[in-house]
Amino acid sequence: MRTLVFGGSFDPPHRGHAALLAAAAEKIRPDRILIVPAYRAPLKSHAPLATAKERLALAHVGLLERLAPRWRRRARVDAREARARRRVFTVETLAELKTQDPAGELHFVCGADAAATFPRWKDPARLRALASWWYGTRPGAVGAAPAFFHRVPGRFPDVSSTELRAALELGHDASDLLLPQTYAEIQRRGLYGTARLERLRSTLKSGRFVHTLNVAALADALARRHNVDAGRARLAGLLHDAGRRFSSPQLAAYVRRRGLNVPRGAQTAARAPLLLHAYVSEDLARREFGVRDAGVLSAVRKHTLGGAPMSALDKVLYVADACSADRRHPDVERIRALAFDDLDAAFARCVAGKLAHALARRAWIHPATIDLWNRLAQR
Ligand SMILES: [Fe+2]
Ligand SMILES: [Fe+2]
Predict the structure, then answer these.
(1) Exposed (0-12), middle (13-18) or buried (19+): which is 372, by Cβ within 10 Å?
(2) What's the CATH fold of domain 196-378?
C-alpha cells in the first residue's frame, strides 16, 4: 500500500497546506492519505495556540474535506500524535506505520521550510530509509530542501501561520490565506481571538470598535518595530477600551463596586469620570477576557493617565491610542511617523498634546497627567 503522510502543526490549516496536499495527492497517487496533526512540533519553540482536539477538527474541515472526492475517500485525519500529549518525532510515527504495513511505501510531504530543517530532525538517516520525501515550495521560502527530496509540482500560496493568526486576532480579512470553510469553523469555535473580537463588537459602539481595531493594528506595528512582543501589544490594544461599553455613571459605580485603585479616585469620578475607563478595562481584561499577563494589564491600565514606570509596551499602547488611524488632531500623522523612529519622543509629544488639548478647553487636568509630564520634563 502506498501511503501519503502529511504532517504539521496545522495551527490553523491554511490555503498553502490545502493546495500542497491536493497537488501531492495528484503526483503520488496514494492508496491512502494520513493527515497527522502534531501534538507539538519538535522544532518549534512555541506550543500551538489551538488545542490538539481543535486542530484535529480544523484539519478535518480545512484539509480532508477540501480534497477531491477520489482522494477524500482514501484520506483520514490521524490522531495518534495529537492524542499523545507529548512531542512525537516523525521517526516514531513512520516506524509505527512501517511495522503495520512492512511491504508498504511511505511518502512524507511537507513544505520547503520544514524540508530545509530535515538534518535537525531526530534520526535523519533512519527517516530517509523509512520513506520517500516530498516538499512543496512557496514564493519566499527560506533554505533549500536536501537533495533527496522530490519536489511536488506547482507553487503553493505563501502563508505564514504566525501572520495568519495575527490577522485573525485583529479582525483583518484573511480570505486570501484561509479557505472559507476553515474560517467558518474557527469562528464557530471562537478560536484565534475571534470570540474576543465578537465580544468587543457586541459590547462597544461601532465607532469605538473601529478605533479599537485601529489601536490594536498600530500597537502591533509599533511593537514589531521596537522589539516588543507583537502578540501582547495586539492584546493590550484590543482590550484597552473594553470599559468604554459603560457610561460615565456606570464607570463610577463599577470602580466603587469593585474597589478599583484609581489615583484620586473620588475626584476623578466627580470631575472626569470617563478617565476611569482605563481601570475598568484592566479589570474586564482580567475577569472577563482571562488576561493574566501583568505587562498587558499594566499597558491597559496606563493608557490614559500613564503611570510610573512606563514600560516599552505601556508606551506602545499609549502612543497607538493617541495616534490611531481614526484620530483627527492636526499633528497625528507626524507623531505616528515619529513613533516608528523614536518611541520616547513620540510618547512625550502625545503627553504634551493631551495637556495642550485640556488647557485649550480649560478642562480639569488629572494630577497623574501633570506628574507624567513632569517626569518627562525632568529628563
Ligand atoms: Fe481609552
Ligand atoms: Fe482608545
Answers:
(1) buried
(2) Hypothetical protein af1432 (1.10.3210)
Q: What is the pLDDT of residue 328?
A: 93
pLDDT number for residue 160: 84
Ligand nearest to the CA of 277: 1
Q: Where are the domains of the chain?
A: 2-167+174-189, 196-378
Q: Report how far ligand 1's centroid is from the alpha carbon of 329 (Å).
A: 16
How far away, in angstroms, is 378 Cα from ligand 1 center?
26
Measured in Å, residue 212 CA sits from the centre of ligand 2 at: 6
How is residue 38 written as a grid cell?
Answer: 502534531
pTM: 0.90
The bound ligand whose nearest atom lies closest to the alpha carbon of 275 is 1
Query: What distance in Å separates the CA atoms of residue 158 and residue 265, rounded to the nearest whole number?
Result: 51
Pick out the chain residues at pLDDT < 50: none
State the distance from the centre of ligand 2 to the C-alpha of 207, rounded, in angstroms. Answer: 11
What distance in angstroms lies between residue 304's CA and the mean position of ligand 1's atoms? 6
- Residues 220-247 pLDDT 10s: 999 999 999 999 999 999 999 999 999 9
Q: What distance in angstroms lies between residue 352's CA and the mean position of ligand 1's atoms?
A: 17
Q: What fold does the segment set 2-167+174-189 form as a domain?
A: Rossmann fold (3.40.50)
Q: Tell me if domain 2-167+174-189 and domain 196-378 are identical in fold.
A: no
Q: Are 257 and 217 in contact (CB under 8 A)?
A: no
Quote the ligand 2 centre to 131 CA distance (angstroms).
55
> Whole-angstrom Cα distance, residue 172 to residue 216?
11
